[in-house]
Design goal:
The protein has a domain of 68 residues. Helices cover 69% and strands 0% of the residues. Helix 1 runs parallel beside helix 14, helix 2 packs antiparallel against helix 3 and helix 5 packs parallel to helix 7. It is globular. The termini are close together.
Length: 309
């Protein structure tokens, strides 16, 4: 396959360059150093001020779970992922097995492509919240309406499902997204994000009836505030959106949206047999300016897997 041959050559050159450079710090799955998220000067200034306030609050009350979480979150927003993980780890020394700290550290292990560690944290968190009341999570980066749309349970099971998906353990990933839909206090944003990854996980196992069932409640009239791209991708999987139109929308979009839509269209092409086209899309998405976008991470996984087949 021509595309895979070119991909192998590109990865070999990239790996050689990284070894010669002896660069330190976190890397993506190709061995390339992870950069910072793309921020304009106004975003950078606002997030830097917010980090200063969060650090001050944490230093004033370093045992408080909320100050620990928000200090870690604001470090991560600026791409300081390893420092965020260290903050959560110190918090877990004070509050062993707290599901909130495990949820956030698990998320940031995913950011660093440390999927096994993410799974360990998120499975521990899941064990501690099953059967318990759910709670809304405050947004660090609020949506346009200022309405929080995720919960502790939805974030635990969502990130657990992603970690398994990136490990290509599709049955376990599907199970996590099923649990998210069963355990979390649902709204339509949670519904479409869980359904999307659930369907991809099911179809990778040829469990097409389960994928079809997961798409049954999805329609264009859902009250989606944050996850419009996941809604469009679900509708694409139902045959109600044109993948080429979504790809064109992705190309015109900002980095996270490009990664989300781009990976979804690439996955659709792969599932429908056009593997060469899928790999071309995955190469574009893996080069996304935001290396922490889940679509970017998923594309890296697909490309690495293609070289191993």
């Amino acid at each position: 396959m021509k595309t895979v041959a070119l991909l192998l050559t590109g990865l070999a050159l990239l790996g050689s360059a990284c070894v010669q450079g002896h660069q330190r710090g976190p890397r993506n799955l190709f061995g390339e150093p992870l950069g910072r998220p793309p921020l304009d000067w106004a975003q950078e200034a606002r997030l830097t001020r917010a980090l200063q306030h969060a650090e001050e609050a944490w230093r004033a009350d370093p045992t408080n779970i909320d100050t620990i979480i928000w200090y870690g979150r604001h470090l991560a927003y600026l791409g300081r992922i390893e420092e965020a993980i260290d903050v959560y780890s110190r918090g877990l020394e004070l509050h062993p097995d707290d599901p909130r700290l495990l949820r956030h550290r698990g998320h940031r292990f995913i950011s660093l492509r440390r999927f096994d560690e993410a799974i360990r944290d998120l499975e521990r968190a899941a064990d501690r919240v099953r059967g318990q009341p759910d709670r809304v999570e405050r947004d660090g980066l609020p949506n346009a309406k200022g309405l929080p749309r995720t919960t502790l349970k939805s974030n635990i099971f969502y990130h657990l499902g992603l970690a398994y998906y990136f490990r290509r353990e599709f049955a376990a990933a599907q199970g996590a997204f099923v649990q998210e839909l069963a355990e979390a206090d649902l709204n339509d944003d949670i519904l479409v994000s869980a359904a999307y990854w659930l369907v991809l996980s099911a179809e990778r196992q040829a469990r097409f009836e389960e994928a079809e069932a997961a798409l049954l409640p999805i329609h264009g009239g859902l009250d989606v505030i944050e996850n419009r791209d996941y809604l469009d991708l679900c509708l694409m999987l139902k045959g109600e959106r044109d993948p080429q139109a979504l790809w064109q929308a992705a190309v015109r979009a900002r980095p996270i949206r490009f990664a989300t839509l781009g990976y979804g269209v690439g996955a659709f092409e792969a599932l429908h047999g056009d593997v060469d086209r899928a790999l071309e899309i995955f190469q574009d998405v893996a080069a996304c300016q935001n290396p922490y976008a889940f679509g970017c991470i998923a594309a890296e996984v697909e490309l690495i897997h293609a070289t191993e087949e």
